[in-house]
Amino acid sequence: MAAVSIDERLEAPLSLIAQWREDVHCVFARDPAAHSVWEILLTYPGVHATLFHRANHRLWKAGWKLPARILGSVARMLTNVDIHPGATIGRRLFIDHGLGVVIGETTVIGNDVTLYHGVTLGGTTWNKEKRHPTLGDNVLVGSGAKVLGAITLGDNVRVGANSVVVKDVPPCCTVVGIPGRVIQSKGTKIQNRHGIDLDHHLVPDPVGKAISCLMERIDELEARQTEVSKVLHEQHCEACEAESLCAAEQEIVIKRAVGE
């Protein structure tokens, strides 16, 4: 059976009202602070931005590019979320808090994706081509993360907060750091049945692990240096051609020890 691309998965037609209904009701499964539909409709800027984009994208696809950009600018002023009308977004996108999210023109986002505040799905070229990322289904991008370039994040990928991802990420992986590095590989269960895993405190820290290894290595080298120094100090230089140099070195060490 041939693999189905993300673009093909997003082709299933839905009415605008049906899209809006899904965008609102998906919040209950991902935000425990949500209590009612009216609360979501009136107080969630990320939801407002998504609802605006559904209409903007239809105008863009119909060739009404200027009205789409104007309405997109209005949405940006009202929500502080900048979504280009040309971006292709799947079903049930949830932008939590929404503050400072930027989604570029050629971005493709799959179904059931969650973005937190400060996320940028940006481009790395000025050429008129696919220059923004493609996100698979059930992807979660942590606050402040930057996903840059025409790269692909597979299904069920989780991006840690403030990470900068510039390379493709295979499905079912977790990526953190600057630049982003995969720290949990395929086959590792990283998400629950709702496709959302917020246990950020359980994400491995490769930088911290590297620093810890370096500290252990330094302690080991210092211990060896101490042992070597003791051995050299215990040895007596009774007679050798470098006796004068040894004496001079000992005199310097003694002066430093007494603070001269």
Key traits:
five-stranded parallel beta sheet, 260 residues, six-stranded mixed beta sheet, 8 helices, single chain, alpha/beta
Structure description:
With 260 residues, the chain is α/β, with parallel strands linked by helices. It has helices at residues 6-9, 16-25, 27-30, 37-43, 45-61, 65-79, 206-234, 243-258; strands spanning 82-83, 88-89, 94-95, 102-103, 108-109, 114-115, 120-122, 134-135, 140-141, 146-148, 152-153, 158-159, 164-165, 174-176, 181-184. It has a six-stranded mixed sheet with strand order 3-6-9-12-14-15. Strands 1-4-7-10-13 form a five-stranded parallel sheet. Helix 2 (16-25) runs antiparallel to helix 5 (45-61) and helix 5 (45-61) packs antiparallel against helix 6. The chain is elongated and about 90 Å long. Mean pLDDT is 81; it is low at 189-195.
Strand-helix topology:
Elements: H1 6-9, H2 16-25, H3 27-30, H4 37-43, H5 45-61, H6 65-79, E1 82-83, E2 88-89, E3 94-95, E4 102-103, E5 108-109, E6 114-115, E7 120-122, E8 134-135, E9 140-141, E10 146-148, E11 152-153, E12 158-159, E13 164-165, E14 174-176, E15 181-184, H7 206-234, H8 243-258
Parallel strand pairs: 1-4, 2-5, 3-6, 4-7, 5-8, 6-9, 7-10, 8-11, 9-12, 10-13, 12-14
Antiparallel strand pairs: 14-15
Helix pairs in contact: 2-5, 5-6
